[in-house]
Amino acid sequence: MSQVRDGWAATGSGGADQGTVRRANLSLLLRSLREDGPRSRARLASDLGLNKATVSSLVGELLERGLVREGSAERGAVGRPGTIVEIDGAGAYGLGAEINVHHVSTRAVDLAGVVVSERRTSIDTRGLEPAAVIDRLVELVEGTLADLAAFGATPVSAVVGVAGLVDHARGTVSVAANLGWQDVSLAAMLRSRLADPAYLLDVDNEANLAAVAEATPGDPERRDILVLHGEVGIGGGIVADGRPFPGRRGYAGEFGHMVVDRDGSRCGCGRTGCWETVIGLSRLIELAAASEDDLLRSPVLDLEGKVEEIARRAAAGDEPTLVALREIGRWVGVGAAILTNVLNPGMIVLSGYLGEIGEWIHDEVEAELAAGVLAPDAGGTRIGLSTLGFSAAVHGAATVAIDHVYDDPTLVPRADHALEVLS
User: Which positions fall inside the HTH iclR-type domain (predicted)?
Assistant: First the structure.
């Protein structure tokens, strides 16, 4: 890992050009303000190991790009108090979107991570051709763009999450078993329908994005985690040392297709006994619904409605529901133990529907984890519950979208350049 100091970067290749170093320092400073809070220029210089002149120059450029603003005088300072520098949320916007089995959704956030627009449509994506689903998503994206236009803004980037294997280089959904998709050129289709937008547009796996949403910047408890994201299917995401780990080609995290029961049910991927066949929401409904006319099997209830009904029954002490939940929890723990033996994360976060039912399956998961992990005390791995519900993936998509600015603040033009473009 290179260290950036006073305009120079030490790298294995013998240095970097000035522009690259400048962008790295701008990123370093902007991320520091997000993770450690507003500070004076002097404090920033001390904390980052940069000299005061360099920090003043960097802050000046970030001010010109509208990414930071000056606040009140620093309290408790010795001598002449410095002016606080803080993130300016209105400096940039990111757009996240998601395609899942039962819905499409969008979310836009500002540079400070504040949500400025949210849209969602329930839709049975399995009953439609990919083009029809993409058209529905584009309707939401266009509505979100209109919301941003009300601020006089456009997104710096857009990130779309989808429940399937994604080829990042091509922007293609290679396989999405629960959607019935194969080799769908999602990025190209979106760009075409959005009239080839100027902003960046990326495609990623929804569970990877859910993992990003759980990896809170600056929180040491969330630096090494696995996220198990459950809806109709089961996906996963890996965060290592605070950063997403996509794998060699971006396919890491397909936890739901670990084979855990070779004598079990056939999975949507065509194989038998995948983990998602024993912990997916459809399996819980199968176990908990007393009869074919049970409300849980009714199309009247959407995905969230069914989970709310299960939670209501569990809270009321309904024994068939509690038995079904214990069975799901047992299988979640079996798979969690396998993952812990291989990866030893600090925490496994149950997300999506699994997070919503977490209080009723937690004990079974912990018991199986303790029994199945070779290391003492389950290797230090703990089970955590997401508080983001079914919005985890789109939340993560928006986070990744705005993170492009933190990676490279020069994506946002200086004020004088913006005025030249407008004129």
Answer: 29-70
Q: Which residues contact 330 (CB under 8 A, 6 or more apart)?
A: 364, 368
Q: Where are the beta strands (DSSP E) in 353-402?
A: 382-385
Residue 420 tokens, joined: 């030249």
Q: List domains and CATH numbers for the chain.
A: 3-87 (1.10.10.10), 91-210 (3.30.420.40), 218-393 (3.30.420.40)
Spatial distance between the Cα atoms of 95 and 405, rounded to a whole number of angstroms: 12
User: What is the H or E stretch that residue 4 is in?
Assistant: strand 3-5
**pLDDT (tens digit, 9 = 90+) per residue, 132-182?**
999 999 999 999 999 999 989 999 999 999 988 898 888 999 988 888 899
Model confidence pLDDT, tens digit, residues 322-361: 999 999 999 999 999 999 999 999 999 999 899 999 999 9
